[in-house]
Amino acid sequence: MTIDPERGSAAVNAAPPAAADTSFKVWQCILCGFIYEEAAGLPDEGIPPGTRWADVPEDWVCPECSAVKADFEMIEI
User: Fold this and answer.
1) Residue 52, CA distances (Å) to 3, 7, 8, 37 in order
2) Beta strands in 14-70 (DSSP E)
3) CA contacts within 13 A on the Cβ side of 34
4) Which CATH architecture has domain 23-77?
5) Which residues form the Rubredoxin-like domain (predicted)?
6) Are the CB atoms for 65 and 76 separated by under 8 Å?
7) Residue 43: what are its φ and ψ, rounded to 5°?
8) Alpha carbon distance 30, 70 (integer Å)
């Protein structure tokens, strides 16, 4: 807490707002190596850029080998 000299009253220092997690992840099919990038999405398949992996429909399958979402792992780039 600080004193505001112009107002003569105490002011509470508010913490800066927490930054939203804007880092996008990359997921790779363990069967064929296909890469899904959250930042890019798959517009041709109806998945817009910026779509998080958790928001990709559960019935979506790999466009290369038809693997299910459970067959993808997050990878570090």
Assistant:
1) 44, 47, 48, 9
2) 26-29, 35-37
3) 17
4) Single Sheet (2.20)
5) 24-75
6) no
7) -55, -35
8) 9
Q: Are 36 and 53 in contact (CB under 8 A)?
A: yes
Token pair of 20, please?
């939203």
Place of tokens 């069967």: 31
Q: What pTM did the predictor assign?
A: 0.70
Cβ atoms of 43 and 49 within 8 Å: the answer is yes
Q: Which residue has the tokens 């998080």?
A: 52
Name the nearest CA neighbour of 54 among 7, 21, 11.
21
Give pLDDT tens digits along the chain (77 positions): 555 566 665 555 555 555 555 699 999 999 999 999 999 999 999 999 999 999 999 999 999 999 999 999 999 87
- Asked if residue 34 lies in contact with residue 65, where contact means CB atoms within 8 angstroms, the answer is yes
